[in-house]
Amino acid sequence: MKIVWIGTGVMGESMAGHLLDAGHELFVYNRTQSKTAALVKRGANLLEKIEDAPLKADIVFSMVGYPKDVEEVYLGEHGLLKNAKKGQIFVDMSTSSPTLAEKISAEFAKIGAFALDLPVTGGDIGAKNGTLSIMAGGDKDIFEKNVLPLVQHLGKNITYFGKAGKGQYTKLANQIAIATTMISVAESFKFAKSVGLNMDDFFKTVSTGSGGSFSMTSYGPRILKGDFKPGFFVHHFIKDMRLALEECEKMNIKLPGLELVYKLYTSLEEEVKNTNGTQAISKYYNL
Ligand code: NAP
């Protein structure tokens, strides 16, 4: 199958790579073109312009950064909608706004095309290993017949949640769960360190007991090594928490835990927010 993949960053490069490994003909586009080099070396074709994507592909995937990037890629002056045709399928896997996902789906439906939202969870390691959890919103038949067989190369736990936007709502609920577990890891480390425990032994014991979590297992070792390379960029996590808080405001519900974590992450230095992974919350606690 001919597949276009837009956005070959931390997540996109690994995810697109699995489709290449599965034998599909892959076309890749990224804003900073050099980030497509590794996939091109492995046999992918370089796509020069986003607007040409629908001309090359049976199906187009995107894994970009912010809702404004998703909007530009899909609805912008040189975006996918420009050349999209009846029956074509577009799948955004970025973490973005549910309202925007609904809008994109409605715009593509006007020409008889399908736009689905399939955000993911499982981190950079899940993307590398093809073990992501994937939450789908959009047309159910298209999801089951056309999209599921492809995303099965990217993830293990793949669930359909309903019409366009529902994938993104699910992802935001997931980010709310992660928010407090990131803080719980940093605070338990702070306490353990302050009372003088052996930190490696502490991590081994707690991560495999009831204090364990995905955040503890994935990011605990990186905190202990002082490795702040992104995995999951702080600035993306702040974006996700802001999106969740905006939805809470619309529904008039209050999530004080989420509000606190958002405040702590936004208080980190600009340099940290722009370049570090989410384990850098340890810097707030001087770990
Ligand atoms: P990333 O490394 O910043 O990758 C995003 C890529 O999209 C970058 O290479 C960027 O290009 C490209 N891009 C952005 N806007 C574009 C545009 N308008 N046109 C073309 N390319 C564009 O981020 P990531 O970690 O892969 O995350 C991608 C998305 O997945 C985000 O929405 C994030 O919240 C979500 N997510 C991340 C994780 C994780 O653990 N990392 C887990 C689940 C979900 P440039 O190189 O020019 O910036």
Features:
287 residues, Rossmann fold, N-(1-d-carboxylethyl)-l-norvaline Dehydrogenase, domain 2, 9 strands, 2 domains, 3-stranded mixed sheet, alpha/beta, single chain, binds NADP nicotinamide-adenine-dinucleotide phosphate
Structure explained in plain terms:
Helix content is 51%, strand content 14%. The protein contains 13 helices and 9 strands. The chain binds NADP nicotinamide-adenine-dinucleotide phosphate (NAP). NADP nicotinamide-adenine-dinucleotide phosphate binds next to helix 1, helix 4, strand 7, helix 6 and helix 11. Belongs to the HIBADH-related family. This is Phosphogluconate dehydrogenase, NAD binding domain protein.
Count of DSSP helices?
13
The CATH class assignment of the largest domain is Alpha Beta
Strand portion: 5-15%
Task: Kindly provide the radius of gyration, computed on alpha-carbon positions and rounded to a whole number of angstroms.
Answer: 19 Å
Topology order in helix (H) and strand (E) letters: EHEHEHEHEHEEHEHEHHHHHH
What is the structural class? Answer: alpha/beta
Bound compounds, each kind once, are: NADP nicotinamide-adenine-dinucleotide phosphate
Number of strands: 9
**How many distinct folded domains?**
2
Uncertain regions: pLDDT < 50 for 5+ in a row? none
Strand order, main sheet: write it out: 3-2-1-4-5-6
Report the oligomer.
single chain
